[in-house]
Amino acid sequence: MKAGRIPFAMLVIGLAFLYVPTIVVIVTSFNDSRLAGVWTGFSVRWYGELFSDRQFLGAAANSLIVAALSASLATGLGTCAGLVMARHGPFLGRTTFLGLLATPLVLPEVITGLSLLLLFVTAEQLFGWPSGRGIGTIVVAHATLAMSYVAYIVQARLQGMSRDCEEAAADLGAPPLKVFTAVTLPLIMPAIGAGWLLAFVLSLDDLVIASFTSGPQSTTLPMAIFSSVRLGISPKINALATLLVASSALCLGLAAWVQLRRGGKLVPG
Amino acid sequence: MSATTSPAIHRVTTGLPFLWLIVFAALPLVLIVKISLAQMHLGVPPYTPLLGLDDAGENLWRGTLANYRLVAGDSLYLDAYLNSLRIAAISTALALMIGFPMAYAIARAPLGWRTPLLFLVLLPFWTSFLIRVYAWIGLLRPTGLINSTLLWLGLVTEPLKLLNTEFAVFIGMVFCYLPYMLLPLYARLEKLDASLIEAAMDLGATPTLAFWRITVPLAVPGVIAGCLLVFVPAVGEFVIPELLGGADVLMIGKVLWNEFFTNRDWPVSAAVAMLVLLALVVPIATAQVLMARKAGEAS
Question: Which string of DSSP letters, residue by residue, matches chain A?
């Protein structure tokens, strides 16, 4: 059956709605004029100004460190949780486990941020750790948020694949650990990779949780963007936005290319 | 227990994430309850302890419901709370109205087109949330693209106030949360058996009737999931009302943020957080009951 004209028209309008604002930002970032409404000529001067702004560069470095560390931590924890959900039978506290795993997904960011801050402050009072807040506390907060996403991705992959290979390896005498490292792990590697990427992007993108859990020396890129955007439109932010869009397009393109080369699908479903 | 993993691996893979979740997901929520019963206090930490020693050295319960009384008594909090529910509900309805036809069109597109189209819809989700909201400031402000175009066309004589309105918040919400609505709807519509619709048409139903009587009821679980995925983050949203709504649009996420960062009143922020949690338990529980009933009907 073919789609009617109305849904198709809505799809086109909807896609335009999703893309036009970003395209406008990209175009204005090359405008020489400080006033976004007036086009005075093509220029890359705002990119030059952006790269000489130490504040933004430092925040970008912080963000990349936090994203890489928290994504790795989230991937480790989330892969374990995914294995638990897909492969482990019932155990005491399974319902609690599943409920806790879903909390970071349904909780508003302001509450996740506030609650983790209260935890860090209380822990510092009681145990002296963490002494002050900074990169470390943001990493822990982001890892907690992202591990749930990783867990669901890994679980979906495990449930979608047959156990034949693992059972064959076990029948041929491979000990459980060997089965896991030689058979299961390589099979779920694409899901683990996708989970890491998602965790990285989530961390790079987060403003609210980072604002609650960061310290004075650990401004992340979204925090720097936010405080600048609050003061209004700035040509430097346009340039930064263009670079961010370009880098995520590049990452996604790369991921899609790898996925397609392996003969996989781009999107589940 | 699965035949292919050993108990030792089992224990590590279960214990590690479980412990992490207890410490970093469950405990913080308990602390919110605790701090919401405390009072603001100048110092480190900026709230009073719940248990204190009195003159005789006896433990004294110092918890108070004062923050809850403040939040319930001051119309600012109640207004912000109701406003958040209303804005989130309208945004969810708008996202459904826009997302459903889009998901339907993708699900009914030729097979080879579906993946690229879905990819196109989900792509913006991978670019910075903050940047996507920021992009709308550029379009909506008085000297922005929309107003310049309207002025140039002569449709208006002076710029419309688009930014810092509720309208801008709706646009931002739909724009940012549309993928959450679309994905479960698509998953549901894509699996829908086309022969059911053919059968209905063979029996004399018009395409419109077949759509309302077959497609829509079968899509209900996707609708519930999509609405929940949009409504829940929309209620507590901070960035969109802050950047697009301006001072006029009051939402509970903004109130919590300001209590914390501007007034530095941690206990009141915690009480507000409890209020938001309450607002979310109801729709999630309702959706679960609806889903369970739907599953019961299906089996």
Answer: ----HHHHHHHHHHHHHHHHHHHHHHHHTTBSSSSTT----B--HHHHHHHT-HHHHHHHHHHHHHHHHHHHHHHHHHHHHHHHHHH----TTHHHHHHHHHHHHHS-HHHHHHHHHHHHHHHHHHH--S-S-SHHHHHHHHHHHHHHHHHHHHHHHHHHS-SHHHHHHHHTT--HHHHIIIIIHHHHHHHHHHHHHHHHHHHHH-SHHHHHH--TT---HHHHHHHHHTT---HHHHHHHHHHHHHHHHHHHHHHHHHHHTT--SS--
Cβ of B3 within 8 Å of Cβ of A24? The answer is no
Model confidence over B116-134: pLDDT tens digits? Answer: 898 888 888 778 888 889 9
CB pairs under 8 A between A and B: 267
Angle at B189 between CA B184 and CA B194, to 5 degrees: 165
Q: pLDDT value at position A120?
A: 93
Closest-CA residue of chain A to B4: A176
Whether the CB of B79 is below 8 Å from some CB of chain A: the reply is no
Say what the pLDDT of residue B56 is: 65
CB atoms B126 and A93 under 8 Å: no
What does the pLDDT average to over B140-163?
86
ipTM for the predicted complex comes to: 0.87
Say yes or no: B104 contacts chain A, CB-CB below 8 A: yes
Contacts of A36 in chain B (CB under 8 A): 138, 143-144
B73-298 falls under which CATH superfamily? MetI-like (1.10.3720.10)
Residue count (chain B): 299
Contacts of B236 in chain A (CB under 8 A): 107-111
Among A36, A80, A83, whose Cβ lies nearest the Cβ of B138?
A: A36
For residue range B59-82, list pLDDT tens digits in order: 667 778 888 888 888 888 889 989
Q: Which of residues 181-240 of B touch A (CB under 8 A)?
A: 183, 186-187, 190, 194, 197-198, 207, 232-233, 235-239
DSSP, collapsed to helix, strand or coil, labels residue B67 as helix
Residues in B touching A82 (Cβ below 8 Å): none
- Residue A269: pLDDT band (50, 70, 90) is very low
Question: What amino acid occupies position A9?
Answer: A
Range of the domain at A191: 56-235
- For residue A108, which of B95, B87, B281 has the smallest C-alpha distance? B281
Residue extents of the structural domains in chain B: 73-298
CB B9 to CB A2 under 8 A?
no
From the candidates B9, B24, B164, which should be mutated to test the interface with A, based on the most A CB atoms within 10 A?
B24
pLDDT, position A1:
44
Contact call for B20 and A180, based on CB within 8 A: no
Residue bearing the bigger pLDDT, B7 or A139? A139
